Amino acid sequence: MPRPVPASPTPLPAYLRDTYTWAYLDRRSVRWLDQRVVVSAILWGNADRLMNAAVAEFRPGQRVLQAAAVYGDFSLRLVARLGDAGQLTVVDVAPIQVANTRRKLLRWPGARVRVADLAEPLATTFEAVCCFFLLHEVPPHSRRCIVRNLLSAVEPGGRIVFVDYHRPRWWHPMRPVMALVFRYLEPFANSLLAESIETLVPESADFEWRRETLFGGLYQKVVGVRR
Ligand SMILES: C[S@@+](CC[C@H](N)C(=O)[O-])C[C@H]1O[C@@H](n2cnc3c(N)ncnc32)[C@H](O)[C@@H]1O
Predict the structure, then answer these.
(1) Range of the domain at 217
(2) pTM assigned to the model
């Protein structure tokens, strides 16, 4: 009898392996980076504000896709906002991140966490999609694929919420520090700062957009509602 061929695992994108192994693929970093205090420090004390700003865009009872795992309690806040009648699906390409997010969401039966590459088309659609600090970590070509796929996953009348870095104003005291962070740790971030999320792909023409910047322009929240 021929043996069934095991499903091939989703390959990790080269940019993730080459640039972010230290941050997302190493068990020791997952343990220490996944702490509230660390997440808060990385976002200069703005973690609560940014997470609340994202989560407030969703309503109880919605079916929501969270694009990629996020350190700290972001998924817990989102799933609590959706409530028992809602459904959260988290998709991440790294099995170690999927396992970590599953552990955090164990007490929420409405939550699903699965491995997939968001640069590949999604098989399902959602009432809403949330993408928290993913776009600055991917190179421009993959960023466009991801945004296109996420937009395609939004049902008519549904919304998509991006929270990410934005170019800080010239006087921002953190500007020189962030320039170093982007240069040495986040090599794709500057390419995101040079473009507008809401015009990245032609498919965005089907959405009404609004954008808000926070903390002296260092962060942005961009919300699109499908017409
Ligand atoms: C959301 S981003 C960064 C979030 C934020 N910096 C934080 O503190 O967690 C990090 C995640 O994106 C995931 N990721 C990167 N590229 C991806 C892709 N193409 N598809 C799915 N997940 C991806 C990584 O595996 C990682 O878990």
Answers:
(1) 14-226
(2) 0.95
